[in-house]
Amino acid sequence: QQPVQSPQAVILREGEDAVINCSSSKALYSVHWYRQKHGEAPVFLMILLKGGEQKGHEKISASFNEKKQQSSLYLTASQLSYSGTYFCGTEASSGGGADGLTFGKGTHLIIQP
Amino acid sequence: KAGVTQTPRYLIKTRGQQVTLSCSPISGHRSVSWYQQTPGQGLQFLFEYFSETQRNKGNFPGRFSGRQFSNSRSEMNVSTLELGDSALYLCASSLGLARYNEQFFGPGTRLTVL
Q: A57 partner at 20 to 30 Å CA-CA among A26, B84, B86, B94?
């Protein structure tokens, strides 16, 4: 089952902060975040694993609430280059990875000067 | 280091035909995953191959299949094409299993089924 991302779209001014949420109905083992610019391939941002381990970029932060089966991506002091579609991918705790990553439909972020 | 390459970049087929897409991962990467991307559904996981073995599979019919060779290159096959198979097919490679590692995506193959 696809995780639900919110908001679906957001428009910000350069320098403003953004929060993108990802929510699942299943207990999660991991959450993966990717950004895709129009006409380009998705690019890795972060992995958050059950138990607190994180792998990702320095300028982007995220949280993973295992109990609530939610993750949030925090973009602070947004830059024009942050524009794009953000996808969260989740892996359920059950199944040992047999189901692979399930991605949400994406959040469209537009940063205006 | 060369990135992930996919061939062909564009493909036009008719209903009922079969198609094979190819993906060459980054050198040293052992995992290749395939995704279908459409405007309405976003990124949908097809399958992941690691060391020539299919590790997991998404919720797609058996018409979608794949394989991985000893050099980690992977192919995806779709038989008996349907109009709804029109999409951008992305492959992604990672050093190890995708569940633990950063994935690097290729530019995709745009498949149009007429």
A: A26
Average pLDDT over residues A66-76: 90
Over pLDDT 90: what percentage of chain A? 63
A94 pLDDT above the threshold of 80: no
Strands B74-78 and B19-24: antiparallel
CB atoms within 10 A of CB A83: 18
Rounded to whole angstroms, the Cα distance separating B108 from A75 reads 27
pLDDT at A98 over 70: no
Tell me how far CA of residue A2 lies from CA of A25, A56, B1, in angstroms: 9, 23, 34
CB < 8 Å to B42, chain A = 2, 87, 103-106
> What is the rounded radius of gyration, in angstroms, for the C-alpha atoms of chain B?
13
* Total residue length of chain A: 113
Name every residue in A having a CB less than 8 A away from some CB of B: 2, 29-30, 32, 34, 40-44, 47, 49, 55, 87, 89, 91, 97-106
